[in-house]
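ok so dumb question maybe but i'm new to this and my supervisor (M.) told me to 'just get the structure for UDP-glucose 6-dehydrogenase' and walked off. so i did the thing. is this what she meant?? sequence i used:
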Amino acid sequence: MKLAVIGTGYVGLVSGVCFALKDNKVICVDMAEEKIEKLKRAESPIYEPGIEELIEQNLREERLEFTSDLGEAVRRSDIIILAVGTPSLPNGEANLQYIEQAAADVGAAMNGYKIIMTKSTVPVGTNEKIREVVARHTRHAFDIVSAPEFLREGSAISDTLHPDRIIIGIDNPELRETMVELHQDFTDNIYVTDIRSAEMIKYASNAFLATKISFINEIANICEKVGADVTNVAVGMGMDKRIGSSFLQAGIGYGGSCFPKDTNALIQIAGNVDYEFKLLKSVVEVNTDQRYMIISKLRESLGQLNGIHVGIWGLSFKPNTDDIREAPSLEIVETLVKEGAFVKVHDPIAMDKFREQFDHEHIQWCSTAEEAALGCDAVCLLTDWDHYRQVDLRMLGSVLRKPVLIDGRNVFSEQQIAESGLEYYSVGRPRMSGLNGLSPSVAGAV
Ligand code: UDX
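this is what came out, is it supposed to look like this??
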């Protein structure tokens, strides 16, 4: 089939690349010309493992094109995919300015019947607005489809090629066959429903996953007080198929471009129809508080923060991405420097993005995890990059001024800590000290 994808962010670019791999002819469109020029050279504007190789392959095999000419792309395609951003407005509501503009541009460019498929996450009822906007700009017939995207950053390609399910929202039953045909190479698990339900499935799914995270984080906080270990609790809970084991990893909370934005948007969507979504409001509140766990554990172990030196391991909101949008690291580092602490940060790839957002004379940018720890009073692990699992903890104990490790993602095992000589704080697990609290050199002599 001939597809045009409007917007080359995560959703648009990954969808475009994956549809092209399945032998469709795809034209990806973006207003930003410098982005398009880079993409034509197979240089990706987003960090996503494997994407540049696939862009290059698709370009070579002539299934994928990039252009900033939306009109031409629309005219040459049968299905137009809207994948522009829907960022948050200050009140939490989704900003629909870009999607409405894209709908107007698509309508104005149409030269015959088109299927307009929305992949951007949009509030319930938006596809009907899109229909109105397009209709105002064209006399040609068209249909609207809601096809929300569930990909995760860092595993976006395999999530798109092998999804758990595909959700299609339509109001014209004749579209079912075309939509199934377009998606069946990815999975047979295709659920076709009405447009409003499809829009809601996306928000409800993200809100539910965020709820699981805040739930296990609160269980973790209680575990600390009653002497249980949340990692064991999560294993036991996850063995119940009704609960499932995923998204029960306690830590310093969720971040990223989706969960914070979509939970706030759903609270607003409910509020707009006079419904207070109490549970989801608490989920958001718990997530905000959870970040400060790092700060309170630093206070617990070192007393005041003014003048202390802290090493920070990991800035991105999760591993395998350079994305720092809504990352807990932003608030944690800002709070530390505000309190007068000196911070040495390390991240395998997200340091440049972080520095664009926040810089301060108290921050030192380090090229290795070891350098970030050298001479510090404590190290705080904020992102569970595999990189940090490889660090020799005995070495860490020897380069720190005080052997304190605060692990915001429960990365290290009891045994690793036992051999390390570190005073170790994690989330929802008993406080642990290595080598009976003795420094490695002394302990070695015992
Ligand atoms: C998420 C959804 O998973 C995806 O379906 C949707 O399309 C977009 O939002 P993403 O933001 O890429 O994807 O990240 P995800 O891997 O889901 O992680 C989100 C956040 O939750 C991260 O900050 C992660 O560290 C945190 N998390 C995840 C936990 O704290 N505990 C967990 O058990 C799982």
